[in-house]
Design goal:
about 375 residues; alpha/beta; TIM Barrel; 5-stranded parallel sheet; 11 helices; 8 strands; binds iron/sulfur cluster
Length: about 375
């Protein structure tokens, strides 16, 4: 049973044989992908306040000196300063504020992908229709000291958030964080727990394998390349083929992981910093192309929502995957309209769906 499972009513049972089998998987047991994807993004942190204080995180800062521009995990739950600021701006919660930010993004021709930490069903419902996809890192199903503090993340709550996304038919991104004190069995169980939820709802579009990195707060070291290679191979083996395995090239040695089943390189921003890992700049698209070439793979752009969740009328002619369950409403009318629009943004989205090599766009870094 995972820590917090009872409190959050997590009904995932993992077969011991599945855990044992996954623990035996290595790089030689999986195939390299012949196609890598990435997406362009603009990173918009709404607040650096967070109710937690994970010891490897340089993102959070207690509020007091800054305007509320940037979003850790449920910050208005912990800090009255955040709540008061939101109140002055006419929002009753951080999710009301997030909704407005997503609406502005849509108006500006961007497809929102919000990652606001753990969410209750009511919170997620409040923003689901203005997001193309959402996400939260599971990180690990284990209780680790790195999450310690007066308040700490609960694996049960993380799993509940991923389950909520499935119940609400939200295409979802999650992942494991490698090197925060978890063991191999924890990694296997984390990946199998994600698989179990995906098998139930079909909503997990990608799973990150992300190493913890040294920074001002974390001096616990980073996992070795060999550790990352095995963890990546385990992710590939644990997850069904339609779920992408992503490594972030600004944090992980992507070239050395390509033969372990990686098929996505995550988001790259032409204009903003990686605020979660500010010391590790996002690579330019040209660098991603080099990574792909080193593994004899093609590089194609994708949207923040994977194509299989789009209705058939919006999918590209070159789509070869298996469509997600068409009886579920994966995307709101509003998001569908944004993707299908023939305006400035629509052309951009359609180009990303063309499955060709990334095309140059005016004003975008190459
Ligand atoms: S890792 Fe996430 S939950 Fe933990 S302190 Fe940082 S922003 Fe908050």
């Amino acid at each position: 049973m995972f820590p917090g499972a009872e409190k959050y009513d997590i009904d995932i049972e993992l077969a011991e044989t599945a855990v044992e089998e996954l623990l035996l998987v290595g790089p030689d047991d999986v195939d390299a992908a012949d196609r890598l994807t990435f997406s362009r993004n603009v990173f918009v942190p709404l607040t650096t306040a967070c109710r937690y204080t994970c010891t490897y995180c340089t993102y959070y800062d207690p509020p007091g000196t800054e305007a509320l521009f940037t979003f850790g995990d449920d910050p208005d739950d912990r800090y009255t300063a955040v709540h008061d600021q939101l109140d002055r701006w006419g929002h009753d919660s951080i999710h009301a504020y997030l909704r407005q930010a997503c609406e502005i993004a849509l108006e500006e021709g961007l497809l929102p992908h919000a990652n606001p930490g753990d969410q209750t069903p009511a919170q997620m419902r409040r923003v689901a229709d203005v997001n193309a996809s959402m996400g939260v890192m599971l990180e690990t199903t284990a209780d680790v000291r790195a999450h310690a503090g007066p308040r700490s993340k609960s694996p049960g709550q993380r799993l509940a958030t991923i389950r909520t996304a499935g119940e609400l038919a939200v295409p979802f991104t999650t992942g494991i964080l490698v090197g925060i004190g978890e063991g191999w069995r924890d990694r296997a169980e984390s990946l199998l727990a994600i698989r179990a939820l995906h098998e139930r709802y079909g909503h997990v579009q990608e799973v990150l394998v992300q190493p913890v990195v040294e920074n001002d707060r974390w001096r616990g070291g980073s996992p070795s390349v060999e550790t990352l290679r095995q963890a990546t191979a385990m992710a590939r083996a644990a997850l069904p083929p339609e779920v992408s395995v992503q490594v972030p090239p600004n944090l992980a040695p992507a070239q050395e992981l390509l033969d372990c089943g990686v098929d996505d390189l995550g988001g790259v921003s032409p204009v903003t910093d990686d605020h979660i890992n500010p010391e590790h700049a996002w690579p330019a698209v040209e660098e991603l192309r080099e990574v792909a070439a080193s593994g004899d793979a093609t590089l194609t752009e994708r949207l923040p929502v994977y194509e299989r969740y789009l209705p058939g009328s919006l999918r590209s002619d070159s789509f070869e995957g298996v469509p997600a369950d068409s009886t579920r409403d994966w995307l709101s009318e509003r998001i569908q309209t944004a993707i299908g629009a023939e305006d400035r943004a629509g052309r951009r989205y359609r180009r990303a769906l063309s499955a060709g090599p990334p095309a140059a766009a005016p004003g975008q870094l190459r």
